[in-house]
Amino acid sequence: AKVIAVVPAAGIGSRMQAERPKQYLPLADSCILAVTLDVLLSHPAISEVVVALNPDDTYFSALPQAKHPKLRQVIGGAERVDSVIAALQLIDTPASWALVHDAARPCLTHTDIDKLLSSRSQFPHGAILAAPVRDTMKRAGNNGCIATTVPREALWHALTPQLFPTAELLLALEQAVQAGVNVTDEASAMEWKGVSPGLVSGRVDNIKVTHPDDLPLAALYLEYHRH
Ligand code: C5P
Fold first, then answer.
1. What is the band of 20 on the pLDDT scale with cuts at 50, 70, 90?
2. What is the ipTM of this complex?
3. Which residue in 117, 184, 195, 218 has a CA-CA distance of 20 to 30 Å to 143?
4. How many domains is the chain built from?
């Protein structure tokens, strides 16, 4: 079955406090989104990359990746989930797998993509890249005090890519949104449908660039990966 990458890139990155959307901030001689797209476009198992853009986007058309034969564009929505749904609706191959990956995670490696793709035999309903929590976890109570310590043994950070059969994922996302579920990743919609997606251990340096401090860190990781 075909693997089609979906890249939600329609956010405005309000937490970055930058003059342009964070996916267009400079990174490794280009920008965050260009680096992310290059990782996906250059992977031999990915036949197509659908990128969801903000309706007011004025930057994307200037990227060299915009003209890549594997790339398609779609207008995203108000929330990340709406952008993913818009992209999935463009994919008409019923037997395909959708590999959903945040534009803001430029440090993804082909090795981690391969690991996730290989997990399909073990997890036929889909899986996500994830990393075990390292710190001791606290649940906050009132007035800034610790209410309790949460056992961290079973806790994972949900990363992307997240890989699911396209038709099953689209249905789950649409129904979860309809039901008012707060869908912050693809897996949460599948879980709501009663599916238990697999956890595939991924690199902890596959960070989501969210705050200004994350950008030099992403640059450092990319440099590190090259050596
Ligand atoms: O804001 P956050 O970092 O959680 O966004 C994760 C990803 O979802 C980013 O790549 C962002 O561009 C994308 N997004 C989107 N449509 C929205 C909001 C966020 O495609 N409405």
1. confident
2. 0.96
3. 184
4. 1
Compute the mean pLDDT over every residue in the chain, rounded to the nearest whole number.
96
Tell me how far apart the alpha carbons of residues 3 and 97 are, in angstroms, rounded to a whole number: 5
Q: Which residues of 147-178 are buried (b: 16+ CB within 10 A; e: fewer)?
A: eeeeeeeeeeebbbbbbbbbebbbebbeebbe
Q: What is the CATH number of the domain that holds 180?
A: 3.90.550.10
Distance 225 CA to ligand 1 centre (A): 25
Q: Domain residues for 130?
A: 3-226
Dmax over Cα atoms in the chain, in whole Å?
A: 55
β-pairing, 3-9 vs 46-53, is parallel
* DSSP letter for each residue of 41-62: HT-TTEEEEEEEE-TT--SGGG
- Per-residue confidence (pLDDT) for residue 15, from 0 to 100: 77
Tell whether ligand 1 has an atom less than 6 A from the beta carbon of residue 208. yes
pTM of the model: 0.96
Question: Is residue 14's pLDDT more than 80?
Answer: no
**Cα–Cα distances in Å, from 15 out to 11, 19, 102?**
11, 11, 16
Query: How remote is the CA of residue 11 from the centroid of ligand 1, in Å?
Result: 4
